[in-house]
Specification:
The chain is mainly α and 97 residues long. The chain has one domain. It is built from 4 helices and no strands. It starts with a helix and ends in a 5-residue tail after the last helix. 24% of the residues are buried. Keywords: Membrane, Transmembrane, Transmembrane helix. This is DUF2516 family protein.
Length: 97
């Protein structure tokens, strides 16, 4: 197996772990935190992150499945960089002294 094939495998399974992290985080958050953070509801984010994880597991980084892998990765990253920090901020409360 070539080095490039190993790199693509690492990207493929690493992205699946990113999606799984996003899904588990969405699962463990309180439902009212999503409303307080002015984001979509918990079931919607669980569906988005769960579907993204499934797509990243089923479709490979290279080949025709790439067209499904890219939006799935984007969805998981949107949750991680936009929704997750806002949920954490809302649940911790305003601690500016």
């Amino acid at each position: 197996m070539l080095v490039a094939d190993w790199i693509l495998r690492v990207i493929h399974w690493g992205s699946a772990l990113v999606g799984l992290f996003a899904f588990v985080h969405a699962l463990l958050q309180r439902s009212d935190a999503y409303q307080a953070a002015d984001r979509r509801t918990k079931p919607i984010w669980m569906l988005i992150t769960g579907g993204a994880t499934l797509a990243m597991v089923l479709f490979d980084v290279q080949g025709p499945g790439f067209i499904f892998w890219v939006p799935a990765m984007a969805a998981a990253l949107v949750y991680i960089v936009d929704v997750r920090p806002r949920l954490i901020e809302v649940q911790r409360g305003n601690r500016n002294w």
